[in-house]
Amino acid sequence: MGTLLLDPIAFSIGGLKVHWYGLILGSAALVGLLLAVWEGKRFRIPQEFFMDLLLLGVPSAIIAARIYYVAFMWDDYKNNFWDVFKIWNGGIAIYGALIGAIICAVIFVRRRGYNFWRIADICAPGLIIGQMIGRWGNFVNQEAYGGPTTESFLRENLHLPSFIVNQMNVQGTFHHPTFLYESLWNLVGLFLLLILRRQKFLRSGELFASYFIWYSIGRFFIEALRTDSLAFQGAAWLASFVNGLWSPMTWLGFELGYLAPSYGNVRISQLLAIGIVIAAVIFIIVRRRTVSDLPYYSDPIISTKVAAAGVPGVTASAEPEKAEPVKPMETTVEEQPEVPEEKKE
To answer: Would you state the pLDDT for residue 317?
Structure first.
């Protein structure tokens, strides 16, 4: 059977070719922005703040994601240096993108006088919906897929439509649509985050941590299906430990994606996922036990820069101002009108 491919070029303007990959990533960023702006209105944060954050965060994320990927695949780029800049051909790492975006956000948010964790909480659903949409760029580019499978598994077991099944036919061999698995996992995660952020017990920073926990759990199990994972040669016990954690997937009929023994035996994304889940859980527990005045998610968000500017009715406190109690009027004997003697009867 021949391979049926989607054209990665959406359209051309003269000699400029516009790739679906770029359009999909741009759409993902836009939808994430709209979701953050929508939630930001509840806290009276201007939409320009999130637009500026996006304009700085997206380039930072792309650059860091590319650096992360190229660093681990340097042998493929050292003799073709200009290929490093061809991101439209794919080859960016999501964890690298998160590192770049977080570094940019920490600097930007603090310069605007906001608490980083409060803004990160607002942006968490936007991040996961952006990743959910962005994975379809891998689908068009026919990359980041899993190991070999059968057409019947895709059509009859997973009931996937033909346009997905056909695109998973890579040079005559069908592969697991790991982009779809991760996109659906993120869709469920989006609904969970939207529900969680309305719960009264949620504290500052915990929605952001929950996003990392959910995404990393899914990424750990999905990553092992892929055959293009970034990997390194680790100790045998480490590889055995990671594969042991993943082994429940075999009960569902999945198999580990092939990695050349000479390339590595431990997938970097899997190891990072384990570390992130542990770190996020510790983060939540330690902050709750050590920070006595930890604000709730629903508490007001005030920029210290706005408060310092002397805007009426705004203080640097995270709590709304309380009005002074009104004192009851007192009437003294001297203030009472004197009653004439002839009327005292």
So the answer is: 39
Side-chain half-sphere CA neighbours of 264 within 13 A = 19
Q: In the chain, which residues have pLDDT < 70?
A: 1-4, 88-90, 306-345
For 89-100, write each residue's pLDDT tens digit: 667 788 888 999
pLDDT of residue 252: 84
Question: Is 301 inside a domain boundary?
Answer: yes
pLDDT at 322: 42
Secondary structure of residue 155 in the 3-state scheme: helix
Q: Is 135 annotated as a binding residue?
A: yes
The contacts of residue 272 (CB under 8 Å, 6+ apart) are 95, 216
Cα-Cα-Cα-Cα dihedral sign, residues 188, 194, 195, 197: positive
Q: Please indicate, yes or no, if residue 2 is contained in any of the structural domains.
A: no
Structure tokens at 68: 């992360």
Q: How far, in Å, CA of 57 to CA of 104, rounded? A: 6
Predicted TM-score (pTM) above 0.90: no
Asked if residues 113 and 306 have their Cβ atoms less than 8 Å apart, the reply is: yes
Q: Domain range for residue 301?
A: 9-317
How far apart CA 50 and CA 120 sit, in angstroms, is 11
DSSP letters of 48-84?
Answer: HHHHHHHHHHHHHHHHHHHHHHHHHTHHHHTT-GGGG
221 closest CA partner among 255, 171, 172, 173: 255
Give phi and psi for 301, each to the nearest 5: -115, 120
CB 208 within 8 A of CB 121: yes
The answer as to whether 66 is a domain residue is yes
Closest by CA to 86, choosing from 78, 77, 94, is 77
The total number of structural domains that make up the chain: 1
